[in-house]
């Protein structure tokens, strides 16, 4: 199989960027996904969607997002709600710590910025749960500021198209350089959306559909071994996986489900939680449940008062 073609064989980076944006935009206009946070890209919708999309597939997020923003239609409404109500509305997404961080973010935006997130990248990264990627997404999608949202899909597309493959130590800066070159010729909203969709549908980690890709004519990895490898920007591969039902994350999620089912403002004992989980998790001891509950308390997802557990209503 052929080796990777270097960028010099495909032309200077800015020249290639200029050639790429036309076909990429045409492809996105024809096939781009219609998503509620794209149709109404307010800062609030963008922030909520980005929190929900972390490690969760789009199809799973859409109906929960729509119900969530109907119940909490603004940063102010979200900030005013009890944390437990936010965790209840998060049901079906998992990673409940994201709900707690989103709630904290809303309260910070309301107390510090009068309900409107800042546009400055550094100020955004000081908000709870916001890192380099999320700050870039807010700037690009909500404010139309030239920034690249380097999620897993975008990283994979940029690496393959511009470089074929990169050494770990050089990847981050090189990808930002490539994204910056594209931003000289394309609006940030449509560019980031197109790159995300391309990575999610055609330039996938395991079996990229190079023959259908609008960028194959200039891609440094098209038709090479690199385009068919699981790159560093795919989901982490584990040779010997622990069954998910045996993980602490699964146990923590089931504890939250038990407490989520309680009427708001009520609590229960650790013994009752253990009993409720006995059917689905018969191997878990009371000590296992206690340890997982302690971790949930530490993360602010549940509270313990006088040996009783509840969501933070």
Radius of gyration: 22 Å
Strand line-up of the largest beta sheet: 1-3-2
**Average residue pLDDT:** 90
Number of helices: 16
Short précis:
This protein is mostly helical. The chain has 16 helices and three strands. A three-stranded antiparallel sheet has the order 1-3-2.
How is this fold's topology laid out?
Layout: H1 7-10, H2 13-31, H3 36-39, H4 43-53, H5 58-71, H6 75-80, H7 83-89, H8 97-113, H9 121-125, H10 132-143, H11 152-163, H12 168-183, H13 188-201, H14 248-260, E1 268-269, H15 270-277, H16 286-298, E2 302-305, E3 308-311
Antiparallel strand pairs: 1-3, 2-3
Helix pairs in contact: 2-13, 4-5, 4-10, 10-13, 11-12, 11-13, 14-16, 15-16
Could you explain how this protein is built, in words?
The chain has 2 domains: about 230 residues, Endonuclease III, domain 1 (Orthogonal Bundle); about 70 residues, Arc Repressor Mutant, subunit A, CATH 1.10.10.10. The N terminus is likely disordered. It has 16 helices and 3 strands. The longest helix is centred in the N-terminal third of the chain and has 19 residues. Helix 2 crosses helix 13, helix 11 crosses helix 12 and helix 15 crosses helix 16. It is globular. It has a 3-stranded antiparallel beta sheet. With about 325 residues, the protein is mainly α. The protein starts with 6 loop residues before the first helix and ends with a strand. About 55% of the residues lie in helices and about 5% in strands.
């Amino acid at each position: 199989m052929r080796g990777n073609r270097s960028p010099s064989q495909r032309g200077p980076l800015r020249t290639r960027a200029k050639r790429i944006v036309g076909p990429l935009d045409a492809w996105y206009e024809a096939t781009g996904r219609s998503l509620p946070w794209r149709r109404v890209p307010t800062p609030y919708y963008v922030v909520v969607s980005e929190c929900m999309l972390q490690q969760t597939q789009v199809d799973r997020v859409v109906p929960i997002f729509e119900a969530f923003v109907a119940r909490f239609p603004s940063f102010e409404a979200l900030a005013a709600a009890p944390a437990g109500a936010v965790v209840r509305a998060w049901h079906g997404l998992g990673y409940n710590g994201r709900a707690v961080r989103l709630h904290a973010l809303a309260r910070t935006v309301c107390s510090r910025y009068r309900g409107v997130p800042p546009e400055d990248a550094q100020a955004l990264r000081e908000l709870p749960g916001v890192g380099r990627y999320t700050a870039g997404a807010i700037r690009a999608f909500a404010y139309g500021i030239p920034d690249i949202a380097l999620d897993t899909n975008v990283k994979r597309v940029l690496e393959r198209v511009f470089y074929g493959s990169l050494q770990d130590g050089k990847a981050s800066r090189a990808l930002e350089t490539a994204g910056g070159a594209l931003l000289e010729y394309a609006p940030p909203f449509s560019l980031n959306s197109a790159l995300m969709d391309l990575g999610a549908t055609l330039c996938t980690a395991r079996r990229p559909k190079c023959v259908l890709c609008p960028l194959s004519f200039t891609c440094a990895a098209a038709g090479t071994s690199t385009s068919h490898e699981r790159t560093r920007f795919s989901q982490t591969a584990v040779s010997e996986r622990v069954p998910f039902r045996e993980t602490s994350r699964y146990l923590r999620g089931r504890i939250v489900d038990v407490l989520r089912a309680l009427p708001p403002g009520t609590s229960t004992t650790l013994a009752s939680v253990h009993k409720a989980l006995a059917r689905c998790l018969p191997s878990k001891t009371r000590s296992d449940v206690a340890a997982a509950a302690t971790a949930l308390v530490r993360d602010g997802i549940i509270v313990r008062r006088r040996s009783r557990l509840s969501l933070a209503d």
